[in-house]
Amino acid sequence: MSIKSAIDALTAQLGDKISTSQADLNLHGQNETYFPNTPPDAVAYPASTEDVCTIVKTCADHSCPITPVGAASSLEGQHLATAGGVSLDFRDMNQVLEVSPEDLNCVVQAGVTRKGLNQYIRNTGLFFPVDPGADASMGGMAATRASGTTAVRYGTMRENILALEAVLADGTVIRTGSAARKASNGYDLTHLLIGSEGTLGIITELTLKLHGLPEATTAATCRFETVDDAVNCVIATIQCGIPMARIELLDHMMVRGFNKYSDAGLPEVPHLFLEFHGSPAAVEDQRTAFSEIAHEYGASGWKTADTTEDRTALWAMRHDAHYASAALGNGKHIWPTDVCVPISKLAEAVGQAQRDAEKLGLTATIVGHVGDGNFHAGLSVDPNDPAEMKRAEQFTGDLCKTALRLGGTVSGEHGIGLGKQRYMQAEHGDALTPMRAIKAALDPKNILNPGKMLPPTNEK
Fold first, then answer.
1. pLDDT given at position 2
2. Which of 300, 310, 306, 227 is nearest to 264 (CA)?
3. How many CA atoms lie within 13 Å of 279's alpha carbon, on the beta-carbon side?
């Protein structure tokens, strides 16, 4: 049994749904960060769950690795076929299967993207709120437990998935959860698969929660003299119960990147980007309450974005943080990393990250979903400069140690993939043993996205 024999068998079964063209292989070996290109041996394009079953069963028979791929926007290499084999691209499984406005839910195939879904349901008065920035696929967002700028109010993918359909490593199709909003029976396989990065099963279909579009929306920006002032303003806001829809921190380096990439014209000091949702009266109350708190912490330069066009431009700039970081680094690759800490420890964690970057001579931006204690650092690196790559690795390790010391986690939303396996032992300790047991039970041949998430058993 071999990868070649699996591809031969799949070619006979799938016809033009499988490709070995060099262009396809190269495309699926790419990523937006610092990992080297790793082309698979073949790319399969299933059009249905039945196709996925055929592919998985054949790969299982030949012990051929399978790596699921959505929009390929993950930042820790989850979609790279590092063991070779077949990239399973969900491009053609992109249908919205059902929308139930009365129940505030919908059923979608795994390849549906978040923008595509919201465009499809735009006339229902509902929307899907999870917004990681990239136009990611729902299957990929579920597999990496994505969140983003709106998580402070609407939650992450974990809170917005009711049920899943998934194909296990032997080709068996299972359905987990239901359209009901609560249940009290059986093991919670839905949440086991969410965040498993394609290592336990391949998600093919999702039942998602939808939310009512707010009657009114207003965005705003303000600036502070220090990161501590900005973060302390956020802490006070959360403690007062103001239902912020978005509350994002940008340090002075990130603002400088926006000025260079988007010609933003912002003073290069820490900023908060904000958004308020609700009725017109509620939005005005939220904005007034926040501005009063912000004034106590020295906020200045308050600007609002009331029109759809202004809000879209503001959040487009925020979502381009990865590219703005690259512009600040004069086109170098970006080594992205993130951690999450209790919000009371956020200022300490951000300050330590800034000092570490300066000490190591790294150009680094910091931007964060500060309402839930999650922040990202974007390091400018040259993959051909071993010394710079080593300094970036040290920064990431020190950041993870800081997060764990402060009671946090080594990743709030990027996940583990390839880049953070070495920190799993420090965070999870003996809990890695049952994690490995679950992986072995569900994927005994280790064909589902091998080499991701769990560190090798000899690595501490």
1. 87
2. 310
3. 2
